[in-house]
Amino acid sequence: MAEVDIDKLPTYIEIPAIQKDAMAGDGPFKASAEIQEQLGFPGEKIENWQQVAIEKMAETTSKYRSVQVFLDACVKCGACTDKCHYYLGTSDPKNMPVARQDLFRSVYRRHFTFAGKYFPKLVGAKELDDAMLDDWYNYFHQCSQCRRCAVFCPYGIDTAEISMAAREVMNVIGVGQKYSNQILGRINKIGNNLGMPEPALRDTLLDLEEEIEKETGIAVNLPLDNEHAEVLMVTPSADFFAEPHIDGLIGYAKVFHQSGVTWTMSSYASEAANFGMFIGSYEVMRQGALRIRKAALDLGVSRIIVGECGHAWRVAYSFWNTLSGIGGGASDEYALKLQRQLDSNYPQPQHIIEFTYDLIQKGILTFDKTKNDHRKVTFHDSCNVARGSNMGDIENGQFILPREVIKAACNHFADMPKATIKSSTFCCGGGGGLLTDDLIELRIKGAMPRMQALKQSQENDGVNTLAAICAICKSQFSKVLPNYDFDPYMIVSVHQLVSDALVLSDKSQTKAEDSL
Amino acid sequence: MSLTSIIFTLFCYLSLLIFVIGLSYKIIQYSRTPAPLKIPIAPAPLKRSGVFMRMVAEVFLFKSLFKASKWTWFFGWIFHWALVLLFIRHLGYFWPGDTPEVLLKTESFKYASFPLIIGLMGLLARRIFVDRIRYISSPSDYLMLILLITIGASGMLMTFALYYPNMGLVYSFAEGLVTLNWSELPSDLIFLVHIFFVFILIAIFPISKLLHAPGVFFSPTLNQVDNARKRRHISSWAMQKETDKEVSIEQNLEKDE
Asked: Is residue B181 less than 8 Å (CB to CB) from chain A?
């Protein structure tokens, strides 16, 4: 358990008085020259960094309407000031969404607006000097890009867009974050965030198959690079690696087993996560998406399904079609080939929750819910799923479907307080490229609002299980739950709940039905 | 015409010129800047009609602000609606010839100045007394409220406190601005302050946070349809990149292995 001084959980969240510089510091570890150069960024802070940064800002505002409009439109009404979990947890005023944006906006005003050029003091315009850059690095790495502030902003100003833009500017001048950029290097080289090569992955999957057979007596496959499969399953690599993620992977395998739909994972694209989003780089994000497209083409699948990963689902659902033409409408040769190949009877890509939910609706899955009777479950809406995606193509489907899947597998379900779920959900505290030990103090403090809501559910409804569909949330909760006197094992994958209650049938004798 | 009248007439046109040119520039800039990715924020509408409803709720009811802070919503909302009513009430002054019946019926809109001032004072009080909002405020944020309060208060003094200017002159001056048939304006200080600050407000519109008015319509988080899976959304510059640099996935793979 990490040693960070935190207060006891409050009975309800009070908006803290501001404490200037409460989280001042140097920010997370910086990326080495080697890591930076792998991504095509300068290895270290370049000589004329100010000039290049300002030019990059001009480019960003001309390429992203979001950034341009958001920088202009803020009226400083203060609606967002008490909405960020990092502000609520740390009291540092620079963690108020508007103040975080203002680090970027003040420089924008100084260089790109009439008022800021001629009356800088009047409108709070500031120069991008060393102190400002330090603040950028520190505080734009105290934003998990969860977008909760944007839900409450009267103009929909999304701090995530600003923090992505700022991180990209910093990368371009050679000031990158070690954690995110190192991971991006690995995925580009090996195919997943863990840097797990094909043989290791194959071994892991074989071990899991054995484990399932030992436990259930039924042979359930976890296929890799199977060219005759219908479905390409793309899941966060954490699912191959650690508790509680791996139990979710077992859950997917069991669901596929019961469905009779053939599936495979890819050793080339063995990662759903796409940290390109966190660093605000369209190009890097696109490379990740193209990797998956290539895997889908090579394996000749007709469907693509994404595992339990929050930002991966946002990238897949909202961005894949744009980045790589997975979906409809792209015109390049590969996208066209993929479109011919993919089955248009299903949304592409699909979330594993949508897949499981459909099977439940069709009555194909049978559950023994009593297997989960020792659990009183609540669901943590992961921010990127909740605020940046949909499921089932129905309004608010991203809130409905996961809950329905949980209820199909469990008898006891209770939601956390209304102001902390669905579109108002509180971030786990570790998203957006902050899931690293050098930010542990921030992660623990930022988890406070979510932990407080969980505490309330524990007291009111006896909740003892926290289910999530995001690898980052799961890792973050495993780490910070003990700091708030919770059991670190109470965090589970939604598909672990499915896995535990699903009644398996032996399919090795009968041929799989292909009616789906 | 007196020098004052000439100067104020020029001020009026100058502020309008800045307003029109500046605002057109910003609107063209916003509409020409591509939104490369689908980023609608929850609860995101799945259809165009849903976007329309969302915009109506945001623009007319300040729905998100209501969710965020009831006090800010209350002060902000009554201030904006009062401003609309007072704007309508002022149209009669500028109407060339006989004022239409409907504008004559807006006499009672003058009472909107009370909620206007209450709203503005409330917003100012929040800015001064709430530590978080004080922290994020620049001098310009206070000045903007003071400017609006001055406009409202000077208008109220002329309407309710017997500091009436010569209404005949007001009408002929205002009408003259529209018909280019310029004439003398009342030289009461309070009237001059009132209209001078209005000109300032008009002039700073395109270079200040007043850009929130056009901005809200261009905000991608609010105005996008959540249908990324069904329809490809791609910006001009990203498309350019795609066509310029053919995707050579095969080569990529070779390099990797």
From this structure: no
* Residue B232 near chain A (CB below 8 Å): yes
On whether the CB atoms of residues A369 and A411 are closer than 8 A, the answer is yes
Residues 185-214, chain B, touching A (beta carbon < 8 A)? 204, 207-209, 211-212
Selected for mutation to probe chain B from A19, A72, A102, A351 (highest B CB count within 10 Å) is A72
Every domain of chain B and the residues it spans: 3-31+39-256
What is the DSSP secondary-structure string of A241-304?
A: TSTTHHHHHHHHHHHHHHHT--EEB-STT-----TTTTTT-HHHHHHHHHHHHHHHHHHT-SEE
Structure tokens at A231: 């479905």
- ipTM of the shown complex: 0.94
pLDDT by residue for chain A (516 residues), tens only, comes to 667 778 788 888 889 999 999 999 999 999 999 999 999 999 999 999 999 999 999 999 999 999 999 999 999 999 999 999 999 999 999 999 999 999 999 999 999 999 999 999 999 999 999 999 999 999 999 999 999 999 999 999 999 999 999 999 999 999 999 999 999 998 888 888 888 899 999 999 999 999 999 999 999 999 999 998 999 999 999 999 888 999 999 999 999 999 999 999 999 999 999 999 999 999 999 999 999 999 999 999 999 999 999 999 999 999 999 999 887 777 788 888 888 999 989 999 999 999 999 999 999 999 999 999 999 999 999 999 999 999 999 999 999 999 999 999 999 999 999 999 999 999 999 999 999 999 999 999 999 999 999 999 999 999 999 999 999 999 999 999 999 999 999 999 999 999 999 999 987 544 444 444
Mutate to test the interface with B, among A155, A283, A306, A382 (most CBs of B within 10 A): A155
**Domain map (residue ranges) of chain A:** 33-176, 191-353, 363-501
Backbone φ/ψ region at A394: left (φ over 0), alpha (ψ -120 to 50), beta: beta
Residues of A in contact with B246 (CB under 8 A): 332-333
User: CA dist A467 to A42, A55, A65, Å?
Assistant: 41, 44, 36
Assign domain B3-31+39-256 to a CATH class: mainly alpha
Query: What's the CATH number of domain A33-176, 3.30.530, 3.30.450, 1.10.1060, 1.10.1740?
Result: 1.10.1060
